[in-house]
Amino acid sequence: MTTPEPIRWTDPARQHAFMDWLNAQAAAHGLVVGSLRAASADASFRRYFRIDGRDGPRIVMDAPPTHEDCRPFVGVAALLRGGGLEAPEVLSWDEPHGFMLLSDLGATTYLEAIRRADPAQSNALYLAALDALVQLQRIDAHAQVPNYDRALLQRELDLFPTWYIERHCGQRLDDKALAQLQRCFALILDACTAQPSVLVHRDYHSRNLMLPREPGGPPGLLDFQDAVWGPVSYDLASLLRDAYVEWDESTQLDWAVRYWERGRKAGLPLDADFGSFWRDFEWMGLQRHLKVLGIFARLSHRDGKDGYLKDLPLVWRYAHRVASRYNGLGPLAHLLEQLAGTQRESGYTF
């Protein structure tokens, strides 16, 4: 058996508090403290560890309260589990310190699974994800999560000029170009806010879906703490136009139709015309991808997480394709083309 690498700490006081808490959990839950090892990290300040125990492996979360508020995670986890979905169970929570013991949904993400799966297996995984999404969207959580309103959607779009255009590409828009961009933003926001609202996971994609423990079972759901009440097409856009894996448009259309049929049957507030729903899906995806361009740039330049830069070209292609298709978005498509030239000089191929 390989000895786990030691966990690195920069704050000795926090390390001592963590070990005191973990030893107490070991006694209560039959955990093997010496088996603690890194499980994953994400784009936030949270860290995740896996630890062995008498009832199988468990997950330990380290989320410094000065940077992370765990209350939304706990609340949304309860909502999802109450809706019959596979979300982690909170077994213990030290709220003042931000330490949490969770059930383990497994070690294989959808992204890892589909990279080695054949098309039929990938299709089965995505159909299971679509079923889980419909189930998630049937949860009435309007009063329990924030509204994904126009102001929040606008703040997300503003990450694009601040972090991607100015910081990453080194470009500053003149007044005319900025006014054109804001007009495009207004059109996007009009399209997004006109959609019916449901519970939105907000990061429903291949890195946050876990391979079912049993073949044909539902996926495990992770990273749902930012859930909101917002546009019905948002999570589908996250899934089918994922920043980490690309599907051809015919496959996207097939899965979108299957979702739409399932959602309509389940009573979700979906447009009776699939063509109109597909347009909503495209415009919602555009909002998300402009936001993601900004977020990935910020992760690199502010947080030193350069690994996300390799995913920028795919996100750019998603955004450019939609901006090139619809009336009123021509200035945005042209701007993206100009910025792509800047990116080529930096070694990223679009």
UniProtKB/TrEMBL annotation:
- Check the record and name the Pfam families matching this protein: APH
User: Which SUPFAM superfamilies does the record match to this protein?
Assistant: Protein kinase-like (PK-like)
Q: Which residues form a coiled coil?
A: none
What InterPro entries does this protein map onto? Answer: AGP_Transferase, Aminoglycoside_PTrfase, Kinase-like_dom_sf
- The chain positions of domain Aminoglycoside phosphotransferase read 36-263
Superkingdom field = Bacteria
What PANTHER family is this protein classified in?
AMINOGLYCOSIDE PHOSPHOTRANSFERASE-RELATED-RELATED
Listed name of the protein? Aminoglycoside phosphotransferase domain-containing protein
Q: What is the lineage of its organism?
A: Bacteria, Pseudomonadati, Pseudomonadota, Betaproteobacteria, Burkholderiales
